[in-house]
Amino acid sequence: MRRLSAVWVGEMHVKPGNGRRETGNVRRTQLPLALSDYPPIRPSALPILDERLRGTKFVTLECRSVLNPPSRTGMEFWSLNPYVGCEFGCTYCYARYAHRYVVERAHDQGRLTDAELVDFRGAHGWEAFERRVFVKQRLLAALDADLRRYLRSAGPSDRPTAPIVIGTATDPYQPAERRFRITRRVLERLARCDGLNVGIITKSPLVSRDVDVLRRLQTRNDLEVHVSLITVDVPLIRTMEARSPMPAVRLRALTKLTDAGVNAGLIIAPVLPGITDDVPHLEALFQAARQAGARFVHAGPLRLYAGVRDRFLPVIEEHFPRLAERYRRAYARHATAPRDYARALSRRIKRLQARYGFSVNDGMVDRYTSRLPVLQGELGL
Ligand code: SF4
Quick one: which atom of ligand 1 is closest to the CA of 201? Predict the structure, then answer.
């Protein structure tokens, strides 16, 4: 029997079957009365916490550290991601590499068999990111230790100013959060601090569930909640993002946050060259942001890392064949957008920020600057 086809209930490892109870989309397995009915099973190194009817599994991931320092990520901020993998399944998502890394490391450490490695990668190497979601365990203990390290890094007398960004590699309010509530517990812990600089990035309306803790957090800390939306065009959203919430739902959540006084705004990322970067497209987003009471609008162009190409480029070939060759050429040597394109887009965003009454900046680039090198190349707007 494959270890990961069974379900864990507390410390007991039982086969799905008798006693199965269905709650909404999530299948739970109750502990049967007589465990002796079942043969002994080797404990899994990666126990399954829950499972959806369509096959998505939520898997335990023990962690000793959750706050990633800039020295580890190459970004100029600390990052925190309660989950690895994301059911929203955006075709352009660059976080697939992080899932692959966790899976391969678990295999190297003997916690995944060869057969499980195949299951946790998916047929093409990218599907499992959406269907095998790791849920970090003992996260608060790790966060406490990391916060001490973070505060030490700021020096004995200075206030820590390096931002902590939640949701850089997976959505902290993806569907799993409704059940596991890890992001909420992280925010409750951060709300007990003073002088932090916290950013949250999400596509999910679930963020508005935590409006109480967000308000508490921002009384003594800087907070920016970035609601992420690449377009208000519903068919285009479904082409690019397999299971993400609809634009209207996200904008309603943004309105709820801003109505409650939370410092929230819109992030348009990634802007897709030749698809969502035209002025009418961007104007529709700026208008929607204005109506939702957004405090800011940030934007950034597509990055196309090696691990994402196999997922994203076939979508471009199928739906935007006239652009396929241009994408391949523009991102042939580097993952970030060509420098000329990024500059032109930045100018366009700044003009729109000014026109719609938002503060004019380079968006995420200002606060959360990447140290990754900028690129050469051509991709006309
Ligand atoms: S919501 Fe964010 S983390 Fe999730 S798949 Fe989309 S881009 Fe990736």
Answer: 2
Q: Does 154 have pLDDT greater than 80?
A: no
Cα(256) to centroid of ligand 1, in Å? 22
Please tell me if the CB atom of residue 90 comes closer than 6 angstroms to any atom of ligand 1: yes
**14 touches 6 (CB < 8 A):** yes
pLDDT in the model for residue 24: 34
- Of the candidates 135, 130, 125, the one whose C-alpha atom is nearest the C-alpha of residue 104 is 125
In contact, 349 and 289? CB cutoff 8 Å: no
Q: Which of 63-67, 112-116, 160-164, 280-284 has the highest mean pLDDT?
A: 280-284
What is the CB neighbour count within 10 angstroms for residue 62? 13
CB 325 within 8 A of CB 306: no
* DSSP string for residues in 38-97: S---PPPSS-EEEEETTS-EEEEEE-S--EE-HHHHSBSSEEE-SEES-TT-BTT-TTHH
What is the residue with the minimal CA distance to atom 3 of ligand 1? 170
Q: What is the pLDDT of residue 151?
A: 87
